[in-house]
Amino acid sequence: MNQYPIWLDPDDTNYHFPHPDKALNDPDGLLAIGGDLSPERIIIAYLNGIFPWYSPGQPILWWSPNPRAVLFPEKLHVSKSLKKIIRKNVFTTTIDQAFEQVIHACAQTARKNQDGTWITDDMQQAYLNLHRLGIAHSAECWQNGQLVGGLYGIALGKVFFGESMFSERNNASKVAFVHLLDELKKSNYALIDCQVTTDHLLSLGAEEIPRNQFLQLIEQHTQSFLDTNNNQKNTLFQP
Question: Which domains does the chain have, with CATH numbers?
Answer without folding.
Answer: 6-68 (3.30.70.3550), 69-211 (3.40.630.70)
